[in-house]
Amino acid sequence: MMRWISLSLILVLHAYPCTSQDSAHARHVLREWTNNGFPFAQVLDPCVHRDSLVLVPGEGWVWGTVELNQDAQMDPDLFARMSLLEKGAPVRLEDLEKSRRHLLRTSWFAEVSPAKLYRSPTRNQMIPFFRIRENRSGLVEGWMSLQEGEGFLGRVFAQFDNISGKGRSLQIQAESSKESRKAAFHYAEPYPLGWPFSVGVDGSIWNLDSTQSSAELFLGIGWQQNFEWSYTIASGVREVQSSDQRMTTYWGNLLIMRDGRDRLPLPRQGWMWDLDVGAGSPDSEEDPAKAKMQSSLAIWLPLVNRLGAGITLESGTLWPRHANWLMPELYPLAGEVLHSYWPGSLLSQSFVATSLELHWMLQEARFFAFATGVRAEDVLGSWNWLGEYGFGWEQHGEGVGIDLRLAWSKKSSFGQGLIGVAIRTRF
Amino acid sequence: MRIRGLSFWMCFALYPAWAEPLEFLQLDSVPIWNPGFLQVTEEDQYPVLDNDSTPLEINGYKSFRMVTGADGVSVEQNLRLGIVGEVHPGWFVEARLVDEGLAPGEVRVSTLDQIDEIYFRLLHGKGRITLGNFSFNQDSLSLVQVNHASMGAHLEWLGDQASGQWSLGRDPVQRRSVAFWGRDGQQGGYLVAPDGISDIAVVPGSERVYLNGKPLQAGVDYWLNPVGGVLDFKGLLLPGPRDYIQVEFEEHTIGGVQQFSAGHASYRTGPLSLHLLGSGSWYPAQESDTALQRHGQSDWGGRIAWNAGDLGSLWLEAVLGKVDSASGIPGKAYAWALQGDKSWEERARGFRFEYHGSLRDSLFKGKQMVQSYEDLSRWGLFPESLPNRTEHQLKLGFEFQGNWLPWVEGGLLGEPGNMAYRNASIGIDHKPGEVLSQVQLGILDAKEDPVDRRRWELVAKSEDLEGWWRPRSGLLGEVSGVRMEMHAWSGIGYGDFSWLTGNGEVRGEWLEDSAWSRDFRHSLEMVGKTFQGSSLFQWKESATALDRTSGQSWISDQQLHWNTESVQSQFTHRLGKTQEHPLVPNYKRVPAGTGDILYDSLTGNYVENVDMGDFVLDGYVREDSLGDQILAETALEWEGWISPGSLLGIRKGFLRDLRLGLSAASSVRDSMGVHWIPAWRTHEIRQANDGSLKLAGNVEIMNQAADFLGTLDAGISVAKQPGGYGQIEDEKRQGFGFEKGIGETWRLEPRYARTIFGLLEPTPGEWTMNEWEFALEKEFPMEIRIKPKTRYRTMESLRLWQQSLSITKSFQDHGEVQMGYSLTSLSGFRELIPWKITEGYAEGLSHRFEASANYDFQERIRLQFQYLFRSLQGSNSQSHRLSGEVRAFFQ
User: Fold this and answer.
1) If you measure CA to CA, which chain A residue comes closest to B22?
2) Which of A398, B238, B313, B711 lies at 20 to 30 Å from A420 by C-alpha?
3) ipTM surpasses 0.90
4) A417 CB near a chain B CB, below 8 Å?
5) Helix, strand, or coil (residue A31)
6) Full DSSP string of A306-367
7) How far apart are CA B73 and CA B881, in angstroms?
8) Residues whose CB falls within 8 Å of the CB of residue B384, separated by 6 or more in sequence, listed in order
9) Cβ of A158 under 8 Å from any chain B Cβ?
């Protein structure tokens, strides 16, 4: 009631309000302080002292331990570390939302609530409390048969994320058909031995028709600089054997990534950029050094209501041009960039792709329509325009994830449109 | 707090531009931490990011099935996915995807043409949009109707006054229409292929069937098997040679994709209503080059109707139809009608009036099933015998007091300027109380080349409309030139109770040249608390003009089910002709050892459910090797159980526990003539085309208190297989055994059986087999059961001795795991012993291990798994078979 009275008095007494510039300046100053350890800072009326702003900073505060709900499987220490809200560091209020988005981008959590703040009873420590709901993380798919003569036939794919809440992830894939065999694994451990890095190991063996085979092993170290920026250095060895020769190449890779999307999967806003450059040693004097570079940019914009847009730019290239690249080294465009071609049908040495998408976003699902244009160099060295359009639906529930996409290429007739369905049932 | 208070007063007194200081966070709003906050209470609902929409509901499953056998592996994936939900307030989505038999892989990819079913539908208010599979149905115009299922886009709006729909699609189907006459004594087995013999694939649900111009209802009046296109009439419909059957349907074609587009709009305001309809179908040029019989067709039409209440109603219709877009000139057709407000069936005094006419030119190729039947019955014309035509028909009547309704009717038909066909009738209807009587006299005059045709017709009939006993009779006389026909019939409707309805009719026909026929038909349906039955019977005798010999035909179908506590009985008897197009199983050869069906070359038979089969069942196909044969079928089935104790009210002793069962079945189909009495001797079966005879008796003694169940059974059977196999076998069997529970956990199951197999075709032989079996079952805690079993089988010198042990573990509500091992010794084997007796075991000692599991995981995933290992000692013959299915449900 009092407030109403005073407000009505303002209008009567002051025919001229303070300028918006004054107000913006005050907010700016206040933001500086609240994001530098003084969360309770106040600015008194800026209209009084145009030259000297009256600021009441309050006491200095630091972050306490990040807490999360007790029924979560997630390891609380790891969670606190991953939130990047470092204990003892000055409080920065704007980091709370950044941290929440950063946690949502791991795709381990179905939901992370906005942080609720508490005070330590004894010290000037601020305790952020997140309530999370975790996704089911186990996925096993496949079939296999073991037979005399034929040996192993089939396909196995297993993926475990955030194993027992410790952040470890493991992925195993094995495929065997009469034409080719392939086995791959990936393992990642966050902050091993308390180091500020994450470590990952990748390995694969691939065998085609017993005429070509390759094996590779890569070790990577990743560092998360802040909420958005992360860097990974990887190094590995790849051995390729064809009918008459054997090549061993040592590779070094650098991956830089800036990720500001609000959540994963189903991002609604923010942008993401990454750059992956790699160099491979020459195997022999005839064989030159190799290099590859790949980069992508994706921007997600909310438009009106639930309608949003997504713009993606992607490109990749391999040096030296027109070398004899092996199948697994080439970029598989079909199935990854272009969905209107049978998976595995388009392999390219260099490509530039751009895609525009409009989507209608729901809580756990989205409907989308897309158009993609690609300029790609095929294995024979000629550049082609490829284009496609289509629509789809994606939904991620507690135990099931569905991605359904219907796409037509520039040349295909209506009935030749490809329907791609990926369904993952997690436990 | 202090500062806040101060600033507030400062603002109020001096500078109240801000009522309060600018701050992002207040100290008071941050509570002091307490570890108790970590406890989750019920009030702490998970935060919902976006709570103004309900999540989309997903349902369906994906399944993955794999079988590995001796020589290969077969893998199959199925997907069935549906979603439904509100995506925005007032906007609903419904979608479905069905794709079966996919190649394996994590990401499933298939083209639109290959997919089984896909559609996406968006609904909002009165409108809806469908992308994918849709059906366009529109029957509002009498000259052209569109009923078509296709794939593409479909838009629909259903308003109160205005409604409309539009669609664009493509589909590999072709529209067909056929007409044929019925046959005496044949209710089923009519082929709808245009040539009358081919095996075609009908699009399910696309058909429209008319009997004498009257549309029939699918499932109630008829059943059309889409595999092969076989039409069976049901219930009381017994088409004869004077009944005209018309079928319109869509046929699946191979190659050649038809494009289809149609639109319809209607508007209604007050007494006026308007309909506009356009539809077209065409083939892309390069595809029609290879299939010349295909052509495009398009129709545009409109209808305007005015319903003026007491004054009557009026409608006009105009249609332009173009067949084969190359010719360029559309055919035209018009139809109109004017009628009074009272219908001819209504009982009210006053004037009745009806006039309708039509005009169509020779280029118009509209499909009108009703019209072509009217041409036949009213004018004696076959469809399209008068391509360029005009027709007028007028009927007037006035109902007087006493329910007399005299009427006159006249009509003209012919080419413009030459109305060669004329008809006139006069009649009177009398409807006092519940009886309807009609007398009418009509003449048809046709100027035809080379001889004019004149036909006089007199009809007199009377019918009781209500009551449990409704007699009716009638007479129809027809004189056309020197030809004279008389039809007389008399019938009764009976029953009309809640539990009984029926009809009976006697009909006689006297045609020219001493040809005649007499016909008796009856039908009855009854439904009671303990019983349920139906009876259908037709007997017809007719003589043709040529040789004057008479022939008889029968249709009979009697069914009775009787279920009480003490008696359970089922009785079925069938008699009739059918045009036989048996559906025979189609066995697909799979990698050896992965199937479950084996071919036994000795008996010429496919044996199902075997360990290491070479075949699997791949649907059924129509057997055409027998040709277009009409077979007479006679079948009788009876099955009954009687409990004398319950029947006689005995509460104690042996009789209380006794239950007696008897079943008998005889079925024979023969092209040589009707078996009036169901076959009951084996030689009758042997001589027929195919058939079987089975007789079995059972005695059961069940005492729950003593935990005892004893069974005694004996039976004989003879069977002859249809089709090319021509196998004849018989079997005589006697057996007895019991099950006895001992204590809470033990169970004893001994059993003996003696079986005599006989094989007549293709390899004659007889085998007598004795079998003893003894099993023990012990139940352990944790739902574990162990069952050792021994089995001994002899046949002449052959000895089969099997010891087995099975262990079962059940998981409450989740499933069970079972493992079994058996050791089988076979000796005294000689050539020519059917697979049934040796069960596929070879001479020597065989090991067989079987493990199976089925388990429901988190109510979302169902696992089924089976492993089989079999080996013969002393040889290298070993086989494995592993099969598994994983089905993931989403909800």
Assistant:
1) A43
2) A398
3) no
4) yes
5) helix
6) TEEEEEEEEEEEEESTT----GGGSEE-BTTTBSSS-TTS-EEEEEEEEEEEEEEE-SSEEE
7) 9
8) B372
9) no
Burial call B867-883: b when 16+ CB within 10 Å, e when fewer: bbbbbbeeeeeebbbbb
Partners of residue B56 in chain A, C-beta under 8 Å: 362, 364-365, 395
Q: Check A14 against B17: CB less than 8 A apart.
A: yes
Q: What is the pTM of this model?
A: 0.74
The Cβ-side half-sphere exposure at B441, using a 13 Å CA radius, reads: 0
Residue A146 with chain B: CB contacts under 8 Å: 68
A56/B3 CB distance under 8 A:
yes
Q: Which residues lie across from B282 on neighbouring strands?
A: B259
Instruction: Tell me the C-alpha distance between A361 and B590, whole Å.
Output: 46
| Nearest CB partner across the interface for B111, out of A7, A131, A416 | A416
Element (H, E) at A4: helix A2-13
Tally: H helices and E strands in chain A: 4, 25
User: Which chain A residue shows the shortest CA-CA distance from B862?
Assistant: A425
Concatenated DSSP letters of B495-529: E-SSSEEEEEEEEEEE-GGG-EEEEEEEEEEEE-S
* C-alpha dihedral (A63, A68, A69, A71), degrees to nearest 10: -150
Does the beta carbon of A42 lie under 8 angstroms from any beta carbon of chain B? yes
- Minimal Cβ distance to A427: which of B44, B66, B858: B858
Element (H, E) at A24: helix A20-34
Q: How far apart are CA B664 and CA B685, in angstroms?
A: 15
Mutate to test the interface with B, among A54, A95, A264, A402 (most CBs of B within 10 A): A402
Distances (CA, A) of A238 to A245, B126, B535, B786: 14, 62, 81, 55
- How many CB pairs lie under 8 A apart between chains A and B? 225
Query: How high is the mean pLDDT in each 10-residue block of chain B (891 residues)?
Result: 40 44 79 72 48 70 78 76 87 88 58 81 93 88 84 93 93 82 82 78 84 87 85 82 86 77 94 94 61 67 91 91 71 91 83 91 73 78 76 92 91 87 93 88 86 88 86 89 83 82 85 80 88 88 72 82 86 75 72 72 71 73 59 84 86 85 88 76 81 92 89 91 69 92 90 89 82 94 93 91 95 91 88 76 87 86 86 74 82 69
d(CA B102, CA B733): 45
**Which A positions 290-349 lie with beta carbon below 8 A of chain B?**
305-306, 335, 342-343
- Most A CBs within 10 A among B48, B109, B862, B882, hence the mutation to make, goes to B109
In angstroms, what separates the C-alpha of B884 from chain A's closest C-alpha? Answer: 9
Judge whether B93 and B121 are in contact, CB under 8 Å.
yes
Note every long-range contact of A400-406, with CB atoms under 8 Å and residues 24 or more positions apart, other chains counting: A400/A424, A400/A425, A400/A426, A400/B58, A400/B860, A400/B888, A400/B890, A401/A265, A401/A426, A402/B58, A402/B81, A402/B890, A404/B81, A404/B97, A405/A339, A406/B112
Q: Any CB–CB contact under 8 A between A90 and chain B?
A: no
Q: Closest Cα of chain B to A191: distance in Å?
A: 25
B7, B24, B113 ranked by CB distance to A44: nearest: B7
A47 touches chain B (CB under 8 A): yes
Question: With the CA atoms of B590, B595, B597 and B602 taken in that order, what torsion angle do they form, in degrees rounded to the nearest 10?
Answer: 70
